[in-house]
Amino acid sequence: MKNFKLEHCTDEELALMAEKDSEAMCVLISRYTRLIRWKASMMCGSVEADDLAQEGFMGLLSAVTAFDKQRNIKFSTYANICITNRMVSALRNSSGLPMPVGDISEPVFEMPDTNAQPDSIVLKREEWADLWRKITSQLSDFEYQICIMFIGGLSYMEIADKLGVSVKSVNNALQRVRSKMRRISM
Asked: Where in the sequence is the domain holding 45, given as residue range(s)?
């Protein structure tokens, strides 16, 4: 029922809720998946489309973290800029040098074929939403907030300042998040 109500929210409303509400983040990710995939497929070159899509998702999370409704700008405009900038930075940084990564056999964000049928795209979106729910259901509200801010590009110090806690609290929370994510992936 909650997700149905969230589907009717504006992107601006969802962005403001997403730092504390994982369901709102799921809806935003679902809404922007197609745009991110399209941009990645159009911009790929020295960087593969899947890698660019990963950067695009990181740009979306960064947009959620930094969005300020008081600026009178639409979230979609702001998110589009963040997504594009993140992808362009990845392209600039690639410059032919190998990028250090872990196990590259499985991408973090497995993207379906850009020529996929609409029903397979919907299924992938549902899988992503389920995975996001599974991850966030294991996190406390505090851990979720810190995780979103960290993924959005904030430093430990910036997160601590924003939440009014110590850097050590931020570090401890992120250690718990990592531990919980490892258990989910096993």
From this structure: 1-98+110-117
